[in-house]
Amino acid sequence: MQEETYQSEKFIIVKTGVNGLDDLIEGGFPEKSITLVSGSPGAGKSILCFQFIYEGVNNGENVLYLTLDKREEGILLQAKKLGYDFQPAIENGQATFRYLNINKKLVYETMSNEILSGKYDRIVLDSITPLSEMPLFLADTQNNMNGSGYSFVDTENQSTGLSGPVQRKHILFIMNALESSEATTIITSELSLSSSNLSRDGISEFLADGVILLKADPTMDRRKLSIFKMRNTKHTLKPQDIQINENGITLVRKTM
Ligand SMILES: Nc1ncnc2c1ncn2[C@@H]1O[C@H](COP(=O)(O)OP(=O)(O)OP(=O)(O)O)[C@@H](O)[C@H]1O
Ligand SMILES: [Mg+2]
Q1: Mean pLDDT across 7-33
Q2: Ligand lying nearest the CA atom of residue 45
Q3: Domain 27-214 CATH superfamily
Q4: Integer Cα distance of 52 and 89 in angstroms
Q5: Left (φ > 0), alpha (ψ -120 to 50) or beta: where does 131 sit?
Q6: Residue ranges with strand state E in the chain
Q7: d(CA 18, CA 16)
Q8: What one-character DSSP code corresponds to residue 22?
Q9: Is residue 75 within 8 Å of residue 64, measured between CB atoms?
């Protein structure tokens, strides 16, 4: 009996919303997992995120899209052009889009409060890169305000005494919050065109449950998607041909 519970818990999967991707990862992302989607500018990271949360909305789930790149309006317009109109879901409370301004001192609190609100089945953080690189420290403290082991300290008020690499602390803090939320999550990371890394920070790929790399090859006018990691899932490592068109990202099926 116990084994059955374990089995059924293990195999709850969440459809990605990307045509063809689910077939490569045993049906979708493991529920409550964190998947890192990395890629160069224009590789399709945000589009994949739209598809993921649109799938959630269509299933009657509650979704959260945290953006650091653009204000909500720009993101919504971009999504609508691809056929993902989130306006009705925003109006009925199913979808929340929130712009995080990294110049604001309270950005970490705003973000973690939203993530930990417990309201969401799917969360997107697009992207983690500005947060991991910002000059705002999270200091270890006994008397922290959120039980995470960290509190929020502005660099202006911090003289000396911080230990450990700041970037790692930022990423760990974000990952811990996402894990505690129990939502199924995508975070994106911005790579340069020539990068051979799996994330900009070199840390996220180890902490995430899954890693998907999107590559655009301008010379060949070709796009590829590779699944580098998906915990508890059997998957191919082979780069897959993808297309972006007015319907978003689709995996190209090869005909024999
Ligand atoms: N209707 C369409 N048909 C074909 N390609 C499209 C279409 N809409 C968008 N694209 C392609 O998708 C790209 C944008 O994808 P997306 O915004 O997801 O990239 P990104 O990886 O999030 O980039 P960034 O790191 O700059 O945020 C465009 O640059 C274009 O190449
Ligand atoms: Mg983007």
Answers
A1: 89
A2: 1
A3: P-loop containing nucleotide triphosphate hydrolases (3.40.50.300)
A4: 14
A5: alpha
A6: 13-14, 29-30, 34-39, 63-67, 95-99, 122-126, 137-140, 150-153, 184-190, 210-217, 222-230, 240-245, 248-251
A7: 5
A8: G
A9: no
Q: Is the pTM of this model over 0.85?
A: yes
* Residues 146 and 114: beta-carbon distance below 8 Å: no
Considering every ligand atom, which ligand is closest to the CA of 41? 1
Query: Of the residues 53, 244, 245, 249, which should be mutated to test ligand 1's pocket, given the most ligand atoms within 8 Å of the CB?
Result: 244
Which burial class, exposed, middle or buried, applies to 195 when counting CB atoms under 10 A from its CB (0-12, 13-18, 19+)?
middle
Residue-by-residue DSSP string for 108-157: HHHHHHHHTTS--SEEEEE-SHHHHHSS-EEEE-SS-SSSSSEEEE-GGG
Report the alpha-carbon distance of residue 66 to residue 59 in Å, rounded. Answer: 20
User: Separation of 222 CA from ligand 2 center, angstroms?
Assistant: 18
**DSSP state at residue 222:** E
Q: DSSP character for 68? A: S
Residues 185-224: tens digit of each pLDDT: 999 999 998 899 999 999 999 999 999 999 998 888 999 9
Query: Residues 166-181: pLDDT tens digits?
Result: 788 889 999 999 999 9
pLDDT at residue 5 greater than cutoff 80: no
204, containing H or E segment: helix 204-207
